[in-house]
């Protein structure tokens, strides 16, 4: 779409063009494997089924150039939640009909063979891909409004709660909003929730069940008939005392970091904390079960127990990953820390660990946290800015990748890239060099 259009105008134009271009063509849908990508794909799959379209689906961790060059030339290619950083490869691949619905940063001009719906070329509105896909599908058919809860789930997966109002009037039987402690899942007993809590990470409590009982005693929260209340069942006084106890253990945490809107979504006929649902979807994909994640989002009955079992396993990976990262030797400089975990963690949890560390009290605001992990003959690099503040980490990674090769994607304060293992030393040296450059404000 042309720069300067409003998001509403762009959605109308792109949806009309998509319907015209897909009349006699099969559709090849490719989406990212995180919660935003999975929910985007879930909304689109159900909308395409309703239109009686012929389509196939592929969920990917990374959009590698080899995959782009192998895509069928006779089909309409539809990318969701990715591809904005791969425009050059898409142009060179000779694909004729390409549509991209994405919200990541764009670093070059848009080729003529690509129709792109992305707020970064419009008015830079904060909205996730699932939000865009939902508005796009609702424009095609107003009955697709029933997928609003999947859009909310995608927005929360990409930490865009503050922009959920951009989806329009969505609250109803399937979507409820409440104020409370934003540690999830708010619908589960508080002792279990605190034991696995990683956002925020609570020193002496997360992963320490003796510490959990201690903090609950401090807050005056006791079990009734052997069972603790859930977070959303706590009264005002209990909530206040628990927030104080958490802040004493994590002094960098502010009250506004702990109190906020909790979205409850009806899945499998039960209202669940959207953050917990998002984490479940994310866990499935990051443990190589994207098919289960899709089935879960579409509420296919036998997928629920499978997804929940995977999530328990994933939480154990995160707790052990945090423990490992705390013991790993780090490269520390002014306003940055590089943690090269090599083959000691799964590449799919590198981003999660970087996010958790960037929200902890370990580092000052503006610090860039970089986590590296091996993936086959490559290295996955995930970077986050503490407090979503400071230098544009996407631009820094772009500069390095242009020099040594690889794939890069993401946002200003949350970006990642993939390089070959042979470039490990060169990457670390260039990253240090770029991170050590002091920004001079004039």
Distance between the termini: 35 Å
Helix content: 40-55%
Number of helices: 16
**Principal-axes shape call:** globular
**How are the strands ordered across the major sheet?**
9-10-11-12-14-13
What is the name of the CATH topology of the largest domain?
inorganic pyrophosphatase (n-terminal core)
Overall CATH class of the largest domain: Alpha Beta
- Rounded radius of gyration (Å): 22 Å
Q: Mean pLDDT score, rounded?
A: 91
Which structural category fits the helices and strands?
Answer: alpha/beta
**What is the CATH architecture descriptor of the largest domain?**
Alpha-Beta Complex
Low-confidence stretches: none
Number of strands: 14
| Element order: H for helix, E for strand | HEHEHEHEEHHEHHHHEEHHHEEHEEHEEH
Brief sketch in words of this structure:
The chain is α/β, with parallel strands linked by helices and 442 residues long.
Element layout with pairings:
Blueprint: H1 7-21, E1 27-32, H2 35-50, E2 55-60, H3 65-69, E3 76-80, H4 87-92, E4 98-101, E5 114-117, H5 129-140, H6 148-157, E6 175-181, H7 190-195, H8 209-218, H9 236-249, H10 255-258, E7 259-267, E8 270-273, H11 274-286, H12 290-297, H13 303-327, E9 330-333, E10 336-340, H14 350-358, E11 368-375, E12 378-385, H15 393-404, E13 407-410, E14 414-420, H16 424-435
Parallel strand pairs: 1-2, 1-3, 3-4, 4-5, 10-11
Antiparallel strand pairs: 6-7, 7-8, 9-10, 11-12, 12-14, 13-14
């Amino acid at each position: 779409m042309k720069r300067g259009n409003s998001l509403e105008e762009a959605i109308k134009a792109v949806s009309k063009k998509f319907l015209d271009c897909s009349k006699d063509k099969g559709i090849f849908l490719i989406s990212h494997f995180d919660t935003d990508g999975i929910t985007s794909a879930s909304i689109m799959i159900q909308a395409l089924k309703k239109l009686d379209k012929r389509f196939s689906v592929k969920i990917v961790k990374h959009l590698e150039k080899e995959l782009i060059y192998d895509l069928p030339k006779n089909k309409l290619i539809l990318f969701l939640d990715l591809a904005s950083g791969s425009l050059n490869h898409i142009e060179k691949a000779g694909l004729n009909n390409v549509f991209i619905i994405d919200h990541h940063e764009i670093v070059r001009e848009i080729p003529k063979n690509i129709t792109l719906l992305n707020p970064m070329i419009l008015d830079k509105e904060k909205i996730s891909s699932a939000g865009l896909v939902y508005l796009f599908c609702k424009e095609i058919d107003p009955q697709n409004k029933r997928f609003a809860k999947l859009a909310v789930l995608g927005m929360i997966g990409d930490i865009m709660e503050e922009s959920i109002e951009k989806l329009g009037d969505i609250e109803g039987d399937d979507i409820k909003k409440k104020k409370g402690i934003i540690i999830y899942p708010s619908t589960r007993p508080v002792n279990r929730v605190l034991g696995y809590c990683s956002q925020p990470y609570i020193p002496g409590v997360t992963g320490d069940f003796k510490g959990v009982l201690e903090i609950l005693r401090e807050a005056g929260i006791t079990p009734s008939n052997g069972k603790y209340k859930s977070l959303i069942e706590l009264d005002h006084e209990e909530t206040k005392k628990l927030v104080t106890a958490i802040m004493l253990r994590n002094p960098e945490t502010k009250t506004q970091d702990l109190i906020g809107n909790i979205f409850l979504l009806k899945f499998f006929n039960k209202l669940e904390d959207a953050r917990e649902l998002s984490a479940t979807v994310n866990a499935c994909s990051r443990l190589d079960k994207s098919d289960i994640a899709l089935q879960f989002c579409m509420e296919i009955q036998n997928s629920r127990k499978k997804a929940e079992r995977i999530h328990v396993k994933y939480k154990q990976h995160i707790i052990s990953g945090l423990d490992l990262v705390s013991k790993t030797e780090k490269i520390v400089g002014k306003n940055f820390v590089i943690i090269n975990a090599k083959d000691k963690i799964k590449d799919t949890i590198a981003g999660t660990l970087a996010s958790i560390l960037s929200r902890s009290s370990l580092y000052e605001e503006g610090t860039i946290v970089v986590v590296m992990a091996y993936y086959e003959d490559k290295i996955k690099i995930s970077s986050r800015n503490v407090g979503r503040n400071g230098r544009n980490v996407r631009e820094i990674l772009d500069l390095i990748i242009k020099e040594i090769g690889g794939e890069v994607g993401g946002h200003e304060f949350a970006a990642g890239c993939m390089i070959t293992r042979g470039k490990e030393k060169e990457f670390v040296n260039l990253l240090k060099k770029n991170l050590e450059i002091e920004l001079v404000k004039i």
